[in-house]
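Please check this:
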Amino acid sequence: MENTSAAAILDKIKNSKNILINMDTRTDYDALCSSIVLNKFIQSLNIKSKVIHANKINQTFNRFDFQADITTETDISTLDLNLYDLIIFLDSGTKVHVSLNDKFLIPAHICSINIDHHVTNDMFGDLNYIHHIGSCCSVLYKFFKELSLAIPKEYLDIMAVGLLTDTGFFKFDSAKPEDFRIAADMLEQGVKIWEIISKLTSYEYIDQIRFKELVYRNLKANFNKKYAYSTITLKEIRDSNINMDKVFIRHSDLIKYIEGIDMAFVIAEVESDPKYYELSFRSKTPDVDVSKIAEIFGGGGHTTGAGASLYGVSSIEEALDIVLKKLAL
């Protein structure tokens, strides 16, 4: 399937009356910022729109005053979708990540637009705007430029946060030359890139320090097979007195730089009833493509950073056993 043109997508938006924007279930700045900007743009056209996010957005995302209007803790599977004539999915690398309900199916009778940047995206929308660059915010920037639209400074400030964080401040291989050019244009337009980086990196809550300690405490490494992993349960989080609202860092990023390993993963318990586990995979270089590993478990992502989920598993031990056996580790 080929990409839909930006003009065709804009035409569909303009001919809609009530639009639902579904933010990816994995909370990060790229999903958040792209959703905020697209919502502001649609409402500037005097079209009714609403952003939903299945999870809670924690306190670590309060470092910027985005004036966001997002309905949180609202999964798309719980809504009456007949109220909408268009659904836009943002930053979801696979259909699995549009809902926490693994039985959810995108309704065929309502037009859907899929805007994303992940290499694992299989163009699951009726209209698709997929570009394999560093962030969904970069894709949105490209969308505006393709339409020859002037991008308000407010939008640029917000999109810069998504671009910087999803490229790991340009440390990840997912950052393409186009992302650097976009960042340069943002600088020329007055975006204070270095101020954004400072806000994101200059401090962290004590809860995040405790969270790091937990990840390191459960760390296991196999240097013969060049992998490392850690596990996290909800009980351990409670016992360590960690407020997850104050934890921003991705747990697998903490262990991927260990000397002598090529791949790292973390299994984290997300819900206790029913049991639901998050799998997060990381590698140092594109030579170890963890998006292919994530696909084994129905997930996806980028070559050096990807994720998936496990449902209906009785314990963290069983989840670990499933992962190790499927990967023949």
Q: What stands out?
A: The radius of gyration is 19 Å. Residues 6-200 form a domain with the inorganic pyrophosphatase (n-terminal core) fold (CATH 3.90.1640.10). Residues 29-44 form the longest helix (16 residues).
